[in-house]
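Deviations from the work plan: none for this task. Representative record:
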Amino acid sequence: MLAESLFILLGTVSVVAALGMLIARNPVTSALWLILTLFCVAGLYLTLSAEFIAVVQVLVYAGAIMVLFLFVIMLLNLGALPQLEKMDWKKALGFVLCVIVLSQLVFIVATSLQLMPATATVAEDAGAATTIAKTLFTRHMLDFEMIGVLLLVATVGALMLAKRKFA
Amino acid sequence: MDTDLLLLLIVLLPAAGAVLNGLLPLMWPQLRRSEAAIGAVGTACVAVPFVLALVLFFQGFAEPYVGSFYTWMGVGDFSVSVAYRVDHLSLIMALVVTGVGALIHLYSIGYMHGDRSFWKFFAYLNLFIFMMLNLVLADNLLLMFLGWEGVGLCSYLLIGFWYEDFKNSQAATKAFVVNRIGDFAFLLAMFILVREVGSLDFAEVFAAAGEMTAGTLNAVVFLLFIGATGKSAQIPLFVWLPDAMAGPTPVSALIHAATMVTSGLYLLARMSSVVLMAPTVMGLIAVTGALTALVAATIAIAQTDIKRVLAYSTVSQLGFMFMASGVGAFFVAIFHVVTHAFFKACLFLGSGSVIHGMHHVEHDLRRAGYKDPFDPQDMRTMGGLGRFMPRTRWTYLAATLAISGIPLTAGFFSKDEILFKAFEFGYDGHLFAWFVWSVGIGTALLTAFYMMRSYMLTFEGSHRWPMAQRVHPHESPWTITAPLVVLAALSLVGGFIGLPKLAEKAGLANWIHGYLVGHGTHHGPVVEAAATAHVSVGIEVVLIVLGSLIAIGGVWWAWRFYALHELTGDERIRLRFGGLYRWWQRSYYWDEFYDKVAVRPVVGGAENAFAPFDNRVVDGLVNAVARTAQQISRMARHLQTGVVQAYALAIVLGVVVVIALMVR
Amino acid sequence: MEIALSWYLGLSAVLFAIGVAGVLFRSNLIIILMSVELMLNAVNITLVALSQYMGEVSGQILVFFVMSVAAAEAAIGLAIVIAIFRNKLTVDVNNINLFKW
């Protein structure tokens, strides 16, 4: 019962916060809403007993990435938009498409209900750091190294892009 | 070394030379100036194959050897290989091609010195040798046809070598187009053979020839003969050869005298066993050859351009060879091909030496302020060159005597053998052979006359060029005269490879007959007509004496006539023959005739019928397609708004569609 | 752990749709990038939920990788935004159409 109410609370807050990000006119406000969403998602990971991922979510997303976003917003000194964004046919079509995508996804979930396992079959320590580390450093060692290289490349690329003076 | 390797080297070395001389200077223009290197590579790439061919020659090859290197194409049961055949016929032709070719390459180093496209010239020449070797060594008709077309291409490129002058490129086009007619017949013959025999390999064609119906056989031989008339400049397709003299003189010597134009004869000799089965067509061949010989000889009398005289003389001599083929004496045709290669190459190279000298005269005249036009090839402005160019003069004289058939020179043996064979064939009961023989006798007289005329007008008598006291030509450098000396020597003694039948009494066999046709039980690659009646020794002696007298008479007559009258001799002949002489001067109006009958109707028809069709329908269709694409693009490009969100929208649309397809 | 798997998946679908809407509606480049992050998170929820319910730890490894890639993507994306802003003094996608025909 506790878990269910916790899920409902976190889920509702995350959706509301996401909508807040969507409609906020000031980018800083948007970013703050998104941070709230990310925290809620971290909480949802906890309800799934994926502790390691939850911690990483807070550290990497809510911590590092969103700080980066806020830095950039402030660096560029972006204020609120002067007026509401115009509606045009592209936006209208986009809205329709969003609804279709959502309904399609819900449809998929709804039609495959009986295929899903009713309860978690996993051991208690499935989300623990040790469990993940064991797999990560054995079976996925190469992938892990590749991610390291990717991050290095991204760092260098970001540096170059930000440094370079365009004509 | 084994035969396969030798064969490959013989064929591929000239190709390598063509690539080296063609591509390297093309990519590095500074190489184009190193004439010594280009000339050395070009000459070596022909001289080495000559030596290798000599090695093969001394190895014998009484039995044909076929080296197959690569399957060119295989379609069902029909397959064509790149296979080369070594037998006595192909060896003798390969020796002539590479031997005379090497001498002419050497000559070209001196002749083409200072030309802007020196490198291109040698690349073309090497390519020509490569193609010619393919032609003579091929073991099947298709590979031979490859060489056949290849030498045609090189001929085209070299006739139009100085293409800045529109006349030259016109001559090249003419040669190419006229040759195409013959090539088309050759192709048709091959089509028939593929249908009837299912193979183009010589051995299989020969084996199957006996089973073909007479009509098919006649058609094949006739079409091959038409092909041969194109390449070997016989009536009715001879008109391209005189114009081909627009090319540089070494080209005239190599391609349009010694080698390429004889490939028609080679074709007939190669197919001799098939040709012999079509006696009707053989009569046609002999009569065509005789008429060509006579027509060309009369035209040659009235020409004033030194190279055109030689060109018509070539046509006439080729006519002699066709006479020999037509009376079933293919080996004599090849014999004459060989001796003709010697003396005609020598004559052409000699005329080149003369032209070289006259170019210097022209140069000096211009420096001295002479303004009028001056043609270095016109015999009317030569005369007395013998004093300044002794080596050219004596070699030219030797070759002239050889072509005239003065006893014991090369031309004497081969031409006499042709006439004797024609006589023998007539004696054997073929009526047309009498006609051929009598025309041959008359043409031999004309040959001696017009050749001596060209010698007299060029090298003897008074100096007729302007300011003759102040300017005069000089002898050419050794690279030009050395080949002349070699070829002149061969013109004098080269005939001893084919002694007349009379010599058998003295125990001397006719070597080339034994080599090509075989003796006793052994059979060579060339077949000859079987004679039933034998001409007696007495008649043979009479014929030889008659031939000698005609040659000596013709030479002596021209000598006296032109020594006495010089240039006015031509005038006297013109007055004597009147209208006929004008026909000779204008080559019997063949060109005008073709222009009216073939060229104009085709061009006019194309202009009136096909040009509008081409402009409106064909071009219209193409333009319509292009315009449609343009219109569609003009509309479609609006999709490229450059706005990221529009693209994102498209992506989401795609996602919706993909999901819809997946859950369906 | 009494919550049904379908709840997580439904929540993920809703968050994903909101992310798509953000990409399509907002004209601010930075908010578009944030919407992309939201979509990635929605997918992450799906992955973790399925991983736990099916007893397969690989799903969480994948989430870990997705986070790393998201970090790299954010770094590069924001660097591009800065570069564009320097050049055109705007982050409005409607004013950035260099690839127009």
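Residues 493 and 543 of chain B are 21 Å apart (CA to CA).
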